[in-house]
Amino acid sequence: MTNIHLLGAPIEEGAGRRGCIMGPAAYRTAGLAEELASLGHEVADLGDAQRDEVGTLETEHSHLKLLPQVAGWVRSLHRHAYELAKQDVLPIYLGGDHALSMGTVTGHVAAAAEMGRPQFVLWLDAHSDFNVPASSPSGNIHGMPVAFACGLDGFPDMLGKPLPAQLDPQNLCLIGLRSVDGMERDLLQASGAHAYDMRAIDEHGLAKLLLPFLDRVAQANGLLHVSLDVDFIEPDIAPAVGTTVPGGATFREAHHIMEMLHDSGLVTSLDLVELNPFLDDRGRTARLMVDLTASLFGRRVLDRRTQSY
Questions:
Q1: Peptide bond preceding 96: is omega within 30 degrees of 0, i.e. cis?
Q2: pLDDT tens, 69-99?
Q3: Would 308 be classed as within a structural domain?
Q4: I need a surface site. Which of 173, 224, 290, 305 has the fewest CB within 10 A?
Q5: Are 156 and 144 in contact (CB under 8 A)?
Q6: Which residues are catalytic, by number?
Q7: Is 41 labelled as part of a ligand binding site?
């Protein structure tokens, strides 16, 4: 049994379109809490985080969109994640666009540093989100959280203070990549992070990519944060995302990863991000994300019910 705390993060300002603000409500409507409780876990819903008020931020990068609003969310979620990381709970952050991870990941990294344990991050996404302001062609901040957490230069004062601790790129594994900007690719390759595109999955299979990373987490007595973006999955089965890229993970590949993570027993926190219910088809993406989360928390293939349409 795991003590799970749900925290909504209704942020849409980091993305290029509206709709992710409805993500936390969609997860609740799709029965996430009830599904996890049915698996024997204790589940507490903390409601939604509130954005801090932030004034004008100085930056030379005028193309950054809605910067004060995003910074307000980053500061709020960093504070929440830092506090939750020090408790005997497993937090799930219900997004909201991927800019929320600027707060959640850095909060967990800061707490892990205080505990003297290494923080690892598994990033399941079509995009590496490794842009810095100078490299971003769009100015959408949801494409920058990994670079920010790793302490790359060029960011405005997102936290209202220096980054307490940086994510070591060697402790970062990105799986499912299929859309990376040119300068972003150079930054990612220079960082030393473990990055695998869909071709790597095709050629080697998920297990050969993920198991060595999980072994490193276990051997280091590390903490593992998983950040699952809807666009990791093939858009034909998960359409409710504003950044669709064809060729994503199949239904079984996505569940396979979740089952492997459950078997490892290593996951200590989770982001569910980029769900845009405005783009969904009768809630099927929200239900799929709930199903994947259930697999991560112990639902087996043999327990899955047959559905008729």
A1: yes
A2: 999 999 999 999 999 999 999 999 999 999 9
A3: no
A4: 305
A5: no
A6: 98, 125, 127, 129, 142, 229, 231, 274
A7: no
CA dist., res. 212 & res. 162, Å (int): 33
pLDDT in tens, 182-217: 999 999 999 999 999 999 999 999 999 999 999 999
What is the domain count for the chain?
Answer: 1
Q: Is 127 annotated as a binding residue?
A: yes
Average pLDDT of span 284-308: 86
**N-terminal to C-terminal alpha carbon distance within the chain:** 33
DSSP reduced 3-state for 8:
strand
Question: In angstroms, rounded to a whole number, what is the distance separating the alpha carbons of residues 301 and 153?
Answer: 44
Report the share of the chain in percent with pLDDT over 90. Answer: 95
Amino acid at site 229: D
CATH number at residue 168: 3.40.800.10
pLDDT value for 16: 81
**What does pTM read for this prediction?**
0.96
State the average pLDDT over residues 223-242: 97
Structure tokens at 55: 């004034």
The CA distance from 102 to 110, in Å, is 12
Domain assignment present for residue 272? The answer is yes
Do the beta carbons of residue 7 and residue 82 sit within 8 Å? no
Domain around 184: 3-301
Beta strands in 136-234 (DSSP E): 172-177, 194-197, 223-229
129 annotated to bind ligand: yes
Residue 256 annotated as binding site: no
Within-domain flag for 175: yes
Q: Would you say 45 is a known binding-site residue?
A: no
pLDDT, averaged across the chain? 96
pLDDT of residue 308: 54
**Torsion sign (Cα): 115, 37, 175, 217:** positive
| pLDDT tens sequence across 278-288 | 999 999 999 99
Q: Is 125 annotated as a binding residue?
A: yes
